[in-house]
Amino acid sequence: MTSRPQVRASIDHGNQDTVDREHTVLHEHATEQRSTQAASLPPRWFIRLFWVAQRALYSVTRGRLGLRRATAAQWGMLRLRTVGRRSGKERVAILGYFEDGPDLVTMAMNGWGEAEPAWWLNLQAHPDATVDLPGGESRAVHGRAADQEERPRLWGIQASYDKDLDAYAARRSRETAVVILSPRPQ
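Now predict its structure.
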């Protein structure tokens, strides 16, 4: 168990550098503790129920609710339509994403459960898919895993949205794929 560093709060406004250094030490200590502790997640049944409700909201409102655009401050939500790897039927999932130029990027995380998400297995078998975005926009995309050169940069962008990303990923025995959905030529 690590002990909290002893830091005296300085009231001397003429010595702002000391205050800044003390704040940095406290911030680094808190960040270190967060990264070594397991991030808490809601129970698995709750995560699954949330996504079922999300898909139902999208369906009941005929796409008016349930999706959102990615912004600099918050990841977005898209609807991915893939072809089932065994059934050959259309399969649908709502996923969090962010934009990287013309590409849409998501994580193959299955609510941080151990198994790979079905949509990712389907996308690996049939990489061409369709993405529905807010406002009724649809895009034909080609999905692939980020290569070892792209992955750290994209993982860092996702981590800027989710400060516990590394702790969540540590719950899985395998590396979480960073999935790039690139526009297909028309």
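The chain has a mean pLDDT of 80.
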